[in-house]
Amino acid sequence: MIKTELLTILGSVFDELEINYEYETIGTRNVLVVSYTEDESTPIDCTLTIEDLGEDQTALQFFVLGAIDLDKSVCTDLLRLLPQMNEVLEFGSFGLMQQEGVFYYQYAMLIDDLEAEPLVKMALAAFELVTVLAAEGKENILPLLKGEKSAEQLLQDGVSVVL
């Protein structure tokens, strides 16, 4: 069945595209961790998983950690920015694991009733968009992280992620 084979098929496609990845097991879940760089020095991992939602529904999930170390002092300010960043975003959402100081982007797509070829094409297109949006979100919060602007200034500037 395509749902159970999707991560393997995507791994083969990433091989052809010369994109680094590895298979991992987190708990009982098999995941595909795709490593890429948004610039010459910042490696980022995008984790792909298949999630059984019950009632014959399955989702392909993408999860990108921000590849930045957040000082916990900015987490409260960042939490104030997230609603505005997510407000106009029609594709996934940004979030924050406040205790760990981890900024992330996530997206999930239903994959039921799709044949292998269109599903792989959709998954690759989603991967490409997910990586662009994650990088854009990170770029938008850098002034806060560098102390160049406050959360209030970014809110007044209308911080968002619009391509």
Care to describe what's here?
By secondary structure, this protein is α+β, with helices and mostly antiparallel strands. The chain has a single domain (2-157), classed as Yope Regulator, Chain: A, CATH 3.30.1460. Helices cover 42% and strands 31% of the residues. The chain has a 6-stranded antiparallel sheet. Helix 1 crosses helix 3. It is elongated and about 45 Å long. The N and C termini lie far apart (35 Å).
Features:
six-stranded antiparallel β-sheet, Yope Regulator, Chain: A, alpha+beta, 163 residues, 4 helices, 42% helix
A few lines on this structure:
The chain contains four helices and six strands; from the N terminus they run H-E-E-E-E-H-E-E-H-H. It has 163 residues and is an alpha+beta fold. The termini are far apart.
Structural class: alpha+beta
What kind of assembly state do the chains in view correspond to? single chain
| CATH class bucket | Alpha Beta
Principal-axis shape equals elongated
Q: How many helices does DSSP assign?
A: 4
**Level-2 CATH architecture:** 2-Layer Sandwich
Q: How many strands, which pairing sense, and closed or not: the largest β-sheet? A: 6 strands, antiparallel
Number of strands: 6
| Order of strands across the main sheet | 1-2-3-4-6-5
Provide the low-confidence segments as ranges. none
Mean pLDDT figure: 84
- Following the backbone from N to C, one meets helices and strands in this order, namely HEEEEHEEHH
Tell me the span between the first and last alpha carbons: 35 Å
Strand content: 25-35%
State the share of residues found in helices, binned by percent.
40-55%
